[in-house]
UniProtKB/TrEMBL annotation:
Molecular function GO labels: double-stranded DNA binding
UniProt keyword DNA repair present: yes
Top-level taxon: Bacteria
Key words, A-Z: DNA damage, DNA recombination, DNA repair, DNA-binding
Biased composition (Low complexity): 274-288
UniProt xrefs under CDD domains: KU_like (cd00789)
Subunit structure: Homodimer. Interacts with LigD.
InterPro entries: DNA_bd_Ku70/Ku80, Prok_Ku, SPOC-like_C_dom_sf
The protein's name: Non-homologous end joining protein Ku
């Protein structure tokens, strides 16, 4: 199997220590089902073109230029070389500016994760940084130019390597107040809260990403397969939301169903234990009989 191709190569610098590293994409969407856009009448693929909004003429690639709207349909034209000159110079160095507690940054600022691995001649310095952060239980804040943008990167130990997550800038993250400003201030009934706490308690567990199914992708695959084979495809009926007046009864029903499952599980385990004990007793009796006969 071919080794993955690095998306970026440079250095990590902390204090006066520098080590060469390679950066690899940690996530990929290449396995997702993708579709082409077709002409419904001919079945041919549709080609995307840029069209002048006023004349309707097709604008070829060489005639296209970027523009910033200043208002009332007026634009400032930005030539490619002007945009390129505005990109900060890159020295290919992730310069660590601070070490912080691992949980200090709100997850809403997380953008995209990348794996950081050492290049040749940098293994010892890399291991020093990785193990030092593990020992101190900290993460590192660094900055560099990645993919033509100045980015802030959160670096954390990850297995035998490091994981670098690009961070959204503050202006890119919307205020939570905007999303929750219309949320009603509701006082929850004590019984409802106790039932909800009970259900939560019985559902406690751990996260295993290998057991998380992408139902959307699976449903698309089933739909495509059914279309290819000319078979009907069963549409999924969305669940009905609990009405405010039915919420308490829904909680009671949930708690009751969970209690039945727990009782049934205990009964099955108890029967299994008794059967095992009975088999063990028979085995011991048979062995004792053999010893007497001997």
């Amino acid at each position: 199997m071919a080794s993955p191709r690095a998306n970026w190569k440079g250095h990590i610098r902390f204090g006066e220590v520098t080590c060469p590293v390679a950066l690899f994409t940690a996530t990929s969407s290449s396995e997702r089902i993708s579709f082409n856009i077709l002409n419904r009448k001919t079945g041919n693929r549709v080609r995307r073109e840029f069209v002048d909004s006023e004349t309707g003429d097709v604008v070829e690639h060489h005639a296209q230029v970027k523009g910033y709207e200043t208002g009332n349909g007026r634009y400032v034209v930005l030539e490619p070389d002007e945009i390129a000159s505005a990109v900060p110079d890159s020295d290919k160095t992730l310069s660590i500016t601070a070490f912080i507690p691992c949980d200090e940054i709100d997850d809403v600022y997380f953008d995209k994760p990348y794996y950081l691995a050492p290049q040749e001649t940098g293994e010892e310095a890399f291991a020093l940084l990785r193990d030092g952060m593990k020992e101190a239980q900290v993460a590192a804040i660094a900055s560099t130019v990645l993919f033509r943008r100045l980015r802030t990167v959160l670096i954390r130990p990850h297995g035998d390597g490091l994981i670098g997550t690009t961070l959204n800038f503050d202006y890119e993250v919307r205020s939570a107040d905007e999303a929750f400003e219309d949320t009603a201030d509701i006082k929850i009934d004590k019984e409802m809260l106790e039932l909800a706490s009970h259900i939560i308690g019985t559902k406690k567990g751990s996260y295993d990403p290998s057991k998380s199914d992408d139902r959307y992708e699976e449903a698309l695959a089933e739909l495509v397969k059914a279309k290819i084979e000319g078979k009907p495809f069963k549409k999924i009926t969305p669940p009905k939301a609990s009405k405010p007046g039915d919420l308490l009864q829904a909680l009671r029903d949930s708690a009751g169903a969970l209690q039945k499952k727990t009782t049934k599980r205990k009964s099955v385990n108890s029967n299994t234990t008794r059967k095992a004990a009975a088999r063990s007793g028979k085995s011991n009796s048979a062995a004792a009989s053999r010893r007497k006969a001997g």
